[in-house]
Amino acid sequence: MTRDSLLVGALVFLLAGACDALAADEGRIPAFARRYGVSCNLCHNPIPALSAFGEQFAANGFRFAAGERMRDSVPAGDPLMSLMRELPLAIRLDAYAQLYADGRAATDLQMPYNLKVLSGGPISDNISYYFYFFLFERGEVGGIEDAYLYFNDVGGLPVDVAVGQFQVSDPLFKRELRLTYQDYAIYRARVGDQPADFTYDRGVMVIADFAGFTISGEIVNGNGRVPAGSNRRLDDDAGKSFVAHLSREILPGFRLGALGYRGSQTRDLGEQGEIRNRLWMLGGDATISGGPLELNLQYVYRKDDRPTFQLSEPEAVTQGGFAELLVRPPGSRWYAVGLYNRVWSDRPLLDVRLGGPGDVTRYETFTAGGGYQLRRNVRLFLEATWDRERDQFQLSLGTTAAF
User: Roughly how many angstroms between the first and final C-alpha of the chain, as a whole number?
Assistant: First the structure.
């Protein structure tokens, strides 16, 4: 047995012991479960993936039912004043042990990899909030990612509005709630210097239910989660990006969706004047579910006319998607997952693994894994990924704990 295999084996036992220690305190449950006195599996299957009830709970503004009166509010003697008696807080901790092999083996103890503090809940009968702060993300202070106010049933209609910072892909598939260490690559895919993608941005999201359809529209800055410039503006140009998504359950267990994205980004090049990159995206998504199986499919086609902001450059076409298979037997604490990512472009892609400049025009990975719920709020998992383009193998052993 090699030194690396001995090390990985030892890590399995160490992580399992650490998870058991975390799980021993049954009082360590997330804020929403703590507020209602229920188990995490009412909304998650397993954490952090949402169940159907969990999806509806989030859509209700983190309430069991839309319009539900606030619980444990402070009596202020003012009908226009609502204040929770205690500020709800929760913690999520992710830790990993990685084994990389691309001709030689290397190990990495990523403990912790993520540590975040979350808070959310109702402010009034139809207004809620949610945010989380990364205390620790990949070795650095990560800052705020999700942070928004949520308005339920605006004007008495089945229309909800979110205002703040969120992921553009939230109406499609939620990256933060996936069960794999590997990401949904197409949501992060970019070429050149154009910052727009399907991850975090700032703006307004409207979600409506009408005649069996779920319709969402977003207006966002289009430049992601960047700090303000010297002029104190978060948007670095005058343009906005517009996103629309339409979905409907065609048959029981079969949902189809279609999306469109239109935006632009302008750069001031001094004596050369301003140069604008216009981009648009079209795509489709589907979910097929039945029994313990769920298959999620996503495809996106993207075109940028000047992604590096040069007058004479050709258009860039980027396309791809993913297929995700979840196996969650009812009543079992075990689950399995498979994820296939493929993205290709006629220009060098942003490195969707590392978030920096890339040197390839194609990205393709195969991931398979599974996990076990040590407790409802502590999950242990193992997954293996093969990167076809780089001929690299990655083995990930990890744990997610929420309390």
Answer: 38
Q: Is the pLDDT assigned to residue 203 strictly greater than 70?
A: yes
| 79 Rama class: left (phi>0) / alpha (psi -120 to 50) / beta | alpha
What is the identity of the amino acid at 129?
Y
DSSP SS3 for 383: strand
Q: Is the pLDDT of residue 47 over 80?
A: no
Contact between 216 and 332 (Cβ < 8 Å): no
Buried b / exposed e along 18-29 (16+ C-beta atoms within 10 A): bbeebbeeeebb
What pTM was computed for the model?
Answer: 0.86
**Residue 358: helix, strand or coil by DSSP?**
coil
Written as one letter, the residue type at 378 is V
H helix or E strand, kind and range, residue 186: helix 185-188
Length of the chain: 403
Residue 194, SS3?
Answer: coil
28 has a pLDDT exceeding 70: no
What mean pLDDT, rounded, does the chain reach?
86
Residue 18's H or E segment, with its range, is helix 3-23
Distance CA 36, CA 317 (A): 48
